[in-house]
Amino acid sequence: MTAATDQRKPDRHEQAVGLPGWVWVPAALAFLLIVAPVAGLLLKADWARMPELLLSDEALSALRLSLETAAMSTVLCILLGGPLAVVLARSRLRGLRFLRSIVLLPLVLPPVVGGLALLYLLGRTGLVGRGLDLAFGITIPFTTAAVVISQTFVALPFLVVALEGALRTAGRRYEAVAATLGASPALAFRRVTVPLVLPGLASGSVLAFARCMGEFGATITFAGSLQGTTRTLPLLVYQARETDADGAVAISLLLVVVAVVVIILGRPRGSEGLT
Amino acid sequence: MKRLVTGAVAGLAVVLAAACSAPSQSASTGGGSEAPTAAPQSRTLTVLAAASLTESFNSLEKTFEQQNPGVDVKLSYGGSSDLAQQIVNGAPVDVFAAASDATMKTVTDANATASAPSIFATNVLQIATAPGNPKGIASFADLAKPEYKVVVCAPQVPCGAAEVKIEQATKIDVKPVSEETDVKSVLSKVSTGNADAGLVYVTDVNAAKGTVQGVNFPEAAQARTNYPIAVVKNAPQADLAQKWIDLVKGATGTQVLSAQGFGKPAA
């Protein structure tokens, strides 16, 4: 993108040219489609009962669980996804293009399918889960670990894609210079590559964290739903909506607030890292 | 700004309305070899029913369509509370069959039924275990033992409410590993072997056709659930809706329902 715009000379007249008028109509509709439902939530909210609804035992334990699991999953995403992004961006492996498209799978798959896949791999009768149960007596479904695994599964591509983009934009020039100055690959990676892509890593982590906070389908399929153990905020919304619409709206707004905070934190760096 | 917003909302509504009505039009003009004599007007009866009614209503659908040529019965199953929400929020539906009086009450309270609901069946809980019951789970009290992984419905849905009722009556505190939002999710946790036992309806065990085994327990009778049915207010096909209810409550319906394990309504 940047290369294409660099080739052109800056054109002063460009700014004076307006947009075709019709563009505004679908653009406004698109914007409304995003904003109006959230506005609907705000209108539906029972503000007088809001503190009581948000400070209920159920809501607080779900919030704590959501924050804890999303934080753990984000750390896992960085630890596992970071190196994966480096391999995708820098290595000369054969079939790298194929690998890269596989990594995108959780991004494209419906999370329910991811949850089902995890259940048949790690569930008590699953491929790996059966062995874990027989050998160590470990069962993963219905535990907080299952929530973290679900979230890591769905959020991993967000981190990998953001970081790989940052690595490619940064290029290899500085690393090459470091190498000519006698730095080993490990030293060059630590002192040159990592600081260069730190903004990309940060924005990728924020995106991954946001995805973890919102995870629903894989969690409910693979981990189940129990207060304090597996019932995260989205699961609580889904359940509260059955009987307590006000409660569901209140928790939904809490998630909207989290989302807005994430956008504010992640956006400036995000545009840097992703372009 | 406000004018822009209302204009855009109106525009959106038009687009959505067009999108929603398109399929039915294309469906009626679809077949190229359409004979003008066949099916002068095809009508669609929309029935929302609790998930536990899936097998029974699927079989009644065939009977109804044979008895009423040109009528297509569209069945939609789900958690009762979910379906009730859809109806209260104005889904264009003809009949609602719920899995508890409480859920039907949310609809009648919202003034969204055309007539008073009537009970057409009852159901009781049963313990579902793996086929052959390898863990030897024999009673409701067994479910409170910590060595078993037990899955139940969340208290907000009818099957969960029934379970809570039994817990209160027996003073047995079941510690589930998960509270699912509908009965079929409980069943799948058991049939996939991830839970040792689950509390589901006796009809769900029958419908699972051997992938789980049912264990009766006497306390279940203390939480018998009623299945009410009603014509929805402003039903597009109110006359057909009443016909459907007559079929469900008539001899054929009773036979199909009891074959699935449903009980007869208390007289």
Describe the structure.
Chain A: The chain crosses the membrane at residues 21-43, 70-89, 101-122, 134-163, 248-266. The complex is a heterodimer of chains A (275) and B (267). Chain A is mainly α and 275 residues long. Chain A is built from 14 helices and no strands. In chain A, helix 4 packs antiparallel against helix 11 (185-214) and helix 9 crosses helix 11 (185-214). The radius of gyration of chain A is 22 Å and the shape is globular. Mean pLDDT of chain A is 87; it is low at 1-6 and 269-275. Chain B has 267 residues and is of the alpha/beta class. Chain B folds into 2 domains: 43-122 and 226-260, 3-Layer(aba) Sandwich (D-Maltodextrin-Binding Protein, domain 2), CATH 3.40.190; 125-223, Periplasmic binding protein-like II (D-Maltodextrin-Binding Protein, domain 2, 3-Layer(aba) Sandwich), CATH 3.40.190.10. Chain B is built from 9 helices and 10 strands. Chain B has helices at 2-30, 54-67, 80-88, 101-109, 158-170, 183-191, 202-207, 238-249, 251-259; strands at 43-50, 71-78, 95-97, 118-123, 125-129, 150-153, 178-180, 197-201, 213-215, 225-231. In chain B, strand 6, helix 5 and strand 7 (178-180) form a beta-alpha-beta unit. Chain B is elongated, with a radius of gyration of 21 Å. Chain A binds chain B through residues 25, 28-29, 32-33, 36, 119-120, 123-125, 139, 141-142, 220, 223-227, 229-231, 238-245, and chain B through 4-5, 8-9, 11-12, 15, 79, 81-82, 85, 149, 151, 154, 156-157, 176-181, 185, 189, 192-195.
